[in-house]
Design brief:
55% of the residues lie in helices and 7% in strands. By secondary structure, it is mostly helical. It has two domains: 6-180 and 298-327, HUPs (Rossmann fold); 205-292, Tyrosyl-Transfer RNA Synthetase, CATH 1.10.240. Helix 3 crosses helix 12, helix 10 crosses helix 11 (257-263) and helix 10 (240-253) packs across helix 12.
């Protein structure tokens, strides 16, 4: 029997996940678990590069775990774990720091972006977190990593670090390949359709639909979404607002853009927006219901976290021990 490939993906517990996160990435995760050996992490070590309220961070970490389960990720089929529960992440990050060049880190565009947003806290973790991310991926001998446009640089540096280490010490790490999902919409902001919908943006709440929002809030946000001149519903670069709503509608209904345009031929923007809102609410309702059930069962969430940490640690420690042996750390019988 052909051995399944390993696929690694993680999400930070900073901010509340958005409709963009769901349609662009999270929804695909449930399909991946049938075809691959999946490792899904709650990346709370990455989250502390920005100052966090301790109680909030603890709560959001469990919230993301509950969301993973609500999406249909099966803890029996997958490794679902919290990053800080696996000590090997911190240890391998230090080792890989010593195989990463300053010039490589200087080229990371996300460091520049985050430095501008958090100019009062430009810390070393913010600078070196691509190395921690490389460690996350390499510890599990991952074959594939789902990447969006904003993560390509991180996978490239991960591949460079792994190749450099292997060049010195032999075949220690698998060199991961990017996994480009068959479907995965790029959802833009409702008020600023020129820019991706992001959970890190808090200035304009009407720009974002959060996965856990009440139906009436979602409907009002879509009702207020920016549209374009004219009154026809069609897809075009010069109609970013309507094109974004068509993208959303197409993604949640499974209809093609062409089918959606045909469906709303002769329909005004107001009626179109109502249909988009209904489709989004219907898509999120079952996830929200399951999320409420899981998040109210704290004992079960903690059990999943504990068992996930044990499974993740077993694999991560095997890789880490191999690395430690190669670089010359003491070995004890």
């Amino acid at each position: 029997m052909e051995k399944k490939k390993v696929i690694y993906s993680a999400m930070q517990p900073s901010g509340v996940p958005t409709l963009g996160n769901y349609l662009g990435a999270l929804r695909n995760w449930t399909n991946l678990q049938e075809e691959y050996n999946c490792v899904f992490g709650v990346a709370n070590m990455h989250a502390i590069t920005v100052r966090q309220d301790p109680q909030d961070l603890r709560k959001r970490t469990k919230d993301i775990m509950a969301l993973f389960l609500a999406l249909g990720l099966d803890p029996e089929k997958n490794i679902i774990y919290v990053q800080s529960d696996v000590k090997a992440h911190a240890e391998i990050a230090w080792i890989l720091n010593c195989f990463t060049y300053m010039g490589e880190l200087n080229r990371m565009t996300q460091f520049k972006d985050k430095s501008q947003k958090h100019s009062d806290n430009i810390n070393a973790g913010l600078y070196t977190y691509p190395v921690l991310m490389a460690g996350d991926i390499l510890l599990y001998q991952s074959d594939l990593v789902p990447v969006g446009a904003d993560q390509k640089q991180h996978l490239e540096i991960c591949r460079d670090i792994a190749g450099r280490f292997n060049g010195v010490y032999g075949d220690v790490f698998k060199i991961p390949e990017p996994y480009i999902p068959k479907v995965g919409a790029r959802i833009m902001g409702l008020q600023n359709p020129e820019k991706k919908m992001s959970k890190s943006e808090s200035e304009n709440q009407n720009n974002i639909i959060y996965i856990f929002e009440e139906p009436n809030v979602i409907r009002n946000k879509i009702k207020r979404a920016v549209t374009d001149s004219g009154s026809e519903v069609y897809y075009s670069e010069d109609k970013p607002g309507i094109s974004n709503l068509l993208n959303i509608y197409s993604s949640v209904t499974g209809k093609s853009i062409e089918e959606a345009v045909k469906e709303f031929s002769g329909v005004g923007y107001g009626e179109f927006k109502l249909a988009v809102a209904d489709a989004v609410v219907d898509t999120l309702a079952p996830i929200q219901q399951r999320y409420k059930e899981y998040s109210s069962d704290k004992a079960y969430i903690e059990k999943v976290m504990k068992e996930g940490a044990e499974k993740a640690s077993y694999i991560a420690e095997k890789t880490l021990n191999k690395v430690k042996k190669k670089i010359g750390y003491p070995i004890y019988k």
